[in-house]
Amino acid sequence: MECRLGCGACCIAPSISSPIPGMPDGKPAGVRCVQLSDDNLCLIFGHADRPDVCCDFKATRDVCGSNNAEALWIITSLETQTS
Q1: Domain encompassing residue 36
Q2: Is the CA virtual torsion 50, 51, 56, 60 positive or negative?
Q3: Residue 4 belongs to some domain of the structure
Q4: Kind and range of the H or E run holding 77
């Protein structure tokens, strides 16, 4: 599955403990990453300072669902279950 451009669920729903440019302590779950544009595109995609956890994320149907709202719901649910 290819990532749906403009979704951004993986940049909002999960917590990220790695430093992110502009968020040196990472980001809490449910908080929009400061590197997520108004169009829900990663502003540091392809940059060396993008966290490994972000680079390693692969879109799959079981995590991303069939639309952006479903992706946000699934990832939020997974975060809640594993926190």
Answers
A1: 9-82
A2: negative
A3: no
A4: helix 68-82
Mean pLDDT value across the chain: 96
Instruction: Write out the E strands in 16-58.
Output: none
- 78: which 2 tokens? 């997974």
- Close Cβ partners of 20 (under 8 Å, ≥ 6 residues apart): 26, 27, 33, 34, 35, 44, 51, 54
How far is it, in rounded angstroms, from Cα 72 to Cα 29?
11
Instruction: Classify residue 2: in a domain, yes or no.
Output: no
pTM exceeding 0.70: yes
Residue 83 has pLDDT above 90, yes or no: no
How many domains is the chain partitioned into structurally?
A: 1
CA-closest candidate to residue 38, choices 13, 17, 11 = 11
Q: Encoding tokens for residue 79?
A: 């975060």
